[in-house]
Design a protein that fits this description.
Length: 343
């Protein structure tokens, strides 16, 4: 890892403009990793932009973002990066169509509505693609790949890179790294929690993190409507396979009636594991008549990634997801059957 850190530092010292992106519907690790890396890049003197296809989640209240968050390449204007970082992306498709084009072609995509074979605004130079991730199924799509699936979170890698550069994990940088750590380890309770992740968290504490203030802004910020929605979801949970599978299926109509967005569902899948005797939690969200998003969770003793792989999804052993092109009830049934085959 030292050699990759050294190469990243060398490339950043040569770069003038750096673009950072992450997967759509970003969770705390995706946001924390991207924001922390943006702080590092700016510290090194590079002009920086962050692009998140579906925007910054409303309930993640980090202070002092190093740069505004864009949702489309059109917002870049004449900004053509020397380096594009893909952070916490299991593959380049998860960052959205524009960033997927960038990863494959090493150039910015053509303006929306332009010919599909256009080369885009950066055709005269190749953008260096850097892939930093901890997903086990990451194919290594970058020119530089820092992929370690043994890490608890991508933000752990970013924190270690900051320390390699001699930066203090204090203030906004440390807080962003901490956000990713606590998100992907369930506040250091999941099976992926390691001595290294705990030690990194301790160093952030020692650098001055105010945990109570962090929790107030990033955890204790729900609306009453969200609380009521989760109450409806909890009442809808069912058990199957002798109580070893907990399932909650959410029809699109419920979300439309609530007036809330998909961000307000973030984290619910993990709660299904709290039922005694449950080995696998399945959360199914209806996004359209024949389009459902599934999220699976376990405590690490059941490989949910193997189930989502059947549906061209991915993730980790204890947390994975996929899109199933079936109606809600049918999608729920076939996924439960696939889980039962492996129990």
């Amino acid at each position: 890892m030292h050699e990759i850190f050294q190469r990243l530092a060398e490339e950043l010292n040569k770069a003038e403009r750096v673009l950072l992106t992450t997967h759509v519907v970003p969770d705390g690790d995706a946001v924390g990793s991207t924001v922390a890396l943006a702080h590092i890049v700016r510290h090194l003197g590079c002009e920086t932009r962050m692009l998140m296809r579906t925007g910054l989640p409303a309930d993640i209240a980090l202070r002092n973002l190093p740069t505004p968050v864009l949702t489309r390449c059109a917002g870049l204007g004449d900004f053509v990066p020397d380096i594009a970082f893909f952070v916490d992306c299991g593959d380049e498709r998860r960052a959205g169509p524009e960033m997927g084009f960038l990863a494959r072609n090493k150039s910015l995509p053509p303006p929306e509505g332009a010919e599909a074979d256009a080369k885009g605004g950066s055709a005269d130079k190749k953008i260096l693609i850097v892939n930093i991730d901890h997903h086990a199924d990451n194919p290594g799509f970058g020119d530089i790949n820092l992929v370690q699936h043994g890490r608890a979170a991508t933000s752990e890698l970013i924190g270690l890179f900051a320390e390699y550069l001699g930066l203090s994990l204090s203030g906004d940088l440390g807080e962003a790294v901490y956000l990713g750590l606590v998100t992907d380890t369930g506040n250091f309770t999941y099976a992926n929690t390691s001595a290294d992740s705990l030690a990194l968290g301790a160093r952030i504490f020692a650098a001055g993190l105010n945990v109570a203030d962090f929790s107030r802004r990033c955890d204790n910020n729900w609306s009453l409507a969200r609380m009521h929605l989760w109450g409806c979801l909890m009442r809808a949970v069912t058990l199957s396979a002798d109580g070893s599978i907990a399932c909650c299926a959410v029809p699109r109509s419920l979300m439309d009636e609530s007036g809330l967005g998909n961000d307000d569902l973030e984290g619910f899948a993990s709660w299904l594991r709290r039922i005694k005797g449950v080995r696998v939690g399945l959360f199914v969200r209806e996004d359209g008549p024949d389009n459902c998003k599934i999220s699976l969770r376990s405590m690490g003793d059941f490989n949910v990634r193997a189930v989502t792989a059947v549906f061209d999804g991915g993730g980790h052993i204890s947390a994975a997801g996929a899109t199933v092109r079936l109606p809600l009830q049918e999608a729920t049934r076939v996924v439960i059957e696939e889980i039962q085959k492996r129990l």
